[in-house]
Write a structure and sequence with these properties.
Helix content: 25-40%
CATH architecture of one domain: 3-Layer(aba) Sandwich
Oligomer: single chain
Strand content: 15-25%
Largest sheet: 5 strands, parallel
Order of helices and strands: EHEHEEEHEHEHEEEEH
Number of strands: 11
Distance between the termini: 55 Å
CATH topology of one domain: Rossmann fold
Strand order of the largest sheet: 2-1-3-6-7
Structural class: alpha/beta
Length: 283
Amino acid sequence: MKALGIVSSPRKAGNSELAVKEILSQLPGSWEKEMIRLNELNIKYCTACYACIPADKKCKLNDDLDFFIEHVKKADKIVIGAPSYFLGGHTATKAVLDRMLSVLSNFREFAGKDCVIIAPYGRDKWEGAVKENMLIFAAALNLRVVDSATILAAVPSESVQGENLEVVSRLARSLMNPPEKQFSQAGELDCPFCSGAALTLFNDGNCICKICGGGGKLEYNNGEFSIKPNAENHFHFTPDGKISHANYLEEKKQFFLNNRHNIKEIQSKYTDMDWWVQPGGKT
């Protein structure tokens, strides 16, 4: 069994790194363990060139993305640690996430890998959408998130002390023995499909998850609200949803190729609108 720890934080020995190391340390000694710091990889920005579409094509950018993807493929269990920076997941995870179109059609190569997520944040009630950002990151890699947690930890080492250490230990246990249902804080209403909290509520009582597309209807019984799941729109990260997404992108690419002359004609009207400014006063 091989476990891979993914850390997205530029701070050496910071709370994300320590939490991931603590989780890995609690896994069986017979397991092989590796760690990758995303910030140290050369990951170039996606240029939206669609060269990686369809499935038999590869991204034309030459950087460390293949290195990262291959290590994810070889792992059996994944631990993701990323801090909340200004109410969201760290930039390095988004840079990788934006390049996931290149593996969208090959999602089956990642199937069956259990994953846990730990996301430290520095000020009470300022975790923002870091959990949801990391759920999307994991889902893009087709990982099965079996548990996740956000923890208040501002000063390095706080992620592995007191109540936080108990949470970290729970994640390690979940990775070894995945629970039937993800942990949810008492009283919180999360998406019944992905456990995300980014729910849009409608005045007719329906709700939709902005992460996975699933939702349901709010119900009130015995003094408590609950969500009655409705899987009709739960498609963003299902196998059928990924295939549909890949097919959609292929269609759009072909539409562009068939109409590129008309598109370039429209673009040319804006070529002379050169108002760019650059550092050093260059224009």
